Amino acid sequence: MKQPVVMDVPAKVIVDWVNQNLPPLSWQIIVMQNMKVFIKHNVTPSKFTDETVLNPEIVRTISLSIKERYQKELPFAEK
Question: Which of 12, 39, 62, 70 is 20 to 30 Å from 19 at the Cα level?
Fold first, then answer.
């Protein structure tokens, strides 16, 4: 399976997209599912600011989780 090409994305943009396009509590589920990658990159999902940017590995991991669980595409990952 080809990995999506991703870039740095502001955390707020991803959280807002998840909250608007997926069922309630989806962001919390995604965070719990992927806590290891957040810890690996020293990112605290509960303390995002307007300046927080997620690196490509985190965005890719979130994108794959969304695709697996919700069968939707995160628009910030190119196909």
Answer: 39
